[in-house]
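Lecture 7 notes: from sequence to structure.
We start with the chain below.
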Amino acid sequence: MTETNFWLIRHAIVEENARTVIYGTMDVQLCPHSLEAQRPMYAALARRLPRPAVWLASPLSRTQATATAIFRAGYPEQTLTIEPGLIELGFGAWQGLAHAELPPRLTMPAHPFWPLSGDERPPGGESMADGVERVGAVLERLAEAHRGCDVVAVSHGGAIRAAVAHALHIPADNALHLSIENISLTRLDHTPRGWRVACVNELPGF
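Predicted structure tokens for the same chain:
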């Protein structure tokens, strides 16, 4: 039975000032202190990931820098292919706002674990439901293009939640209840019988 196995990794923790705002698709930098403190976790992740594998990253530098940290921790350096469809959810005109500035702008109650509800679409941005549609289409395309391969993709919390929602056929609001921590691993398998979820939010070394 031919399977395509997706190893989805959320990027590392971003720098402190970026965490004070809704950064979405802004190209913010990683936190150098966290990168150093979490070196053992990167080494554990490097040992955990399959070899050989196709390596993908989103267009944002934080995913590419996270991949570089994994290579430095012991995984043989790979060529990274940039996949635009794996970018984080876009918050449009609300990007760059301090978290406290967002609630007055919402047209529906926020989700308990996400700044917006699953169906709230920021001006010029995308809702979580939009993200599920976008990422789902990308996964289907990649599963066909890399049939029978292991694919390591360094992406974002919202995009990975969207990927799980696609695999499980669950609504956007349900997907937002998933915890996807920085440098966690989520694995989805595309099989002839459909999608299978092997793990979600697995932390390296635990």
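Points to note: The chain is about 30% helix and 15% strand. The radius of gyration is 16 Å.
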